[in-house]
Amino acid sequence: MADLVPRAVCLGEAMIMLAAETGAPLEDVETFRRSVGGAECNVAGGLAALGVPTGWISRLGADGFGRHVLRDLGSRGVEVGGVEDDSTRPTGLYVKHTINGRTRMHYYRSGSAAAAMDADFLDRPAVRNRLVGAELVHTTGITAAISTTAAELLDRLASLRDTVGFTLSVDLNWRPALWRDTDPAPLWRLLRAADVVLIGADEALVFAGTSDPAELRELFGPRATIVVKSDSHVALALEPDGRRTEVPALTVEVVEPVGAGDAFAAGYLAGTLQGLPMEQRLRLGHLSAAAVLAVPDDHATPPDASTRQALLDCSDEDWAGTHVGPAGIRSPALVEGAV
Predict the structure, then answer these.
(1) Catalytic one among 86, 171, 262, 298?
(2) Gyration radius of the chain's alpha carbons
């Protein structure tokens, strides 16, 4: 990993996820399954899995949970040399608990090491060198929300982009609880500074009052390619020159929805860095999201390269006839029909 020069850098929080092993009330759950979560590190892992040299930059507690995050991301091919240890603040965590068919998240991130990121963090040589060398830097609205100093960091990041020239990608990831009693002005500034804005249609309605791409263009300004994801229906990209591209989602047997939005972002951004046509960028986003929807974790191994290529190149009819589930992919576009 030391020789890897990241083409993409993801900047933001990582947390330990503890998933309750049973559907009992939380106070009665005795065992939890541990994994690594966090929007930006999910995207970093997804990009690396698609063959894009990717780094993740953040701060972690100098604790066992932080060491596990580094080990996990490193095992997935993510470069983590720009991560800073904090000997006084902990690594954040959250608990995922499903009861009566409803999943709830319980977050324990206040005062975390990641929340202590500030504008000066970008001046650390290990961080700045990676940002200067990157073609694309990705972050989310979650990072803007975790602390006022993290929001200031993102203002500085946008300014650095204008100096260095990387593409700035932002996924809204609107979390109302994080913005309670807090002015979302830093998030608006970040979205208006971005070159790529990824946004769910449902969260756009809550955050911006509209999910119409043309109206979002008026609100976000002329710079970005705006990608609006409408859950299981369609993804639409509106480019700065006015071109619109729509690609329907795949049919998926959903096991767990958490992490699918991050996987879509990874697929779309990988396609962008690979210079794919817009339709194929959106298809790769859908494929990556479908792989995560079909497993219980926040991330999944994407389809192999030959399967991806067959589905990126297939006809609209074959794309519409493709089904993804825990047993694999079935599609008329694949020679054997299933993988």
Answers:
(1) 262
(2) 19
The encoded tokens of residue 312 equal 């990126």
Instruction: Report how far residue 32's alpha carbon sits from residue 29's, in angstroms, rounded to the nearest whole number.
Output: 8
Which three-class secondary structure state does DSSP give residue 31?
Answer: coil
Residues 59/86, Cβ–Cβ less than 8 Å: yes
| 13 contacts 143 by C-beta, under 8 angstroms | yes
Q: Which helix (H) or strand (E) holds 325?
A: strand 323-325
Q: 48 and 77 in contact (C-beta within 8 Å)?
A: yes
Measure the CA angle with vertex 125, ends 173 and 192; round to 5°. 30
| Residue 155 annotated among the catalytic residues of the structure | no
Q: Which residues are paired to 168 by β-bridges?
A: 137
DSSP SS3 for 251: strand
The token pair that represents 253 in the structure block: 């047997």
Tens-digit pLDDT profile for residues 272-304: 999 999 999 999 999 999 999 999 877 889 999
Query: What b/e readout covers 42-58, taking b as 16+ CB neighbours within 10 angstroms?
Result: bbbbbbbbbebbbbbbb
Q: What is the pTM of this model?
A: 0.94
User: Residues with Cβ < 8 Å from 254, sequence gap 6 or more?
Assistant: 293, 294
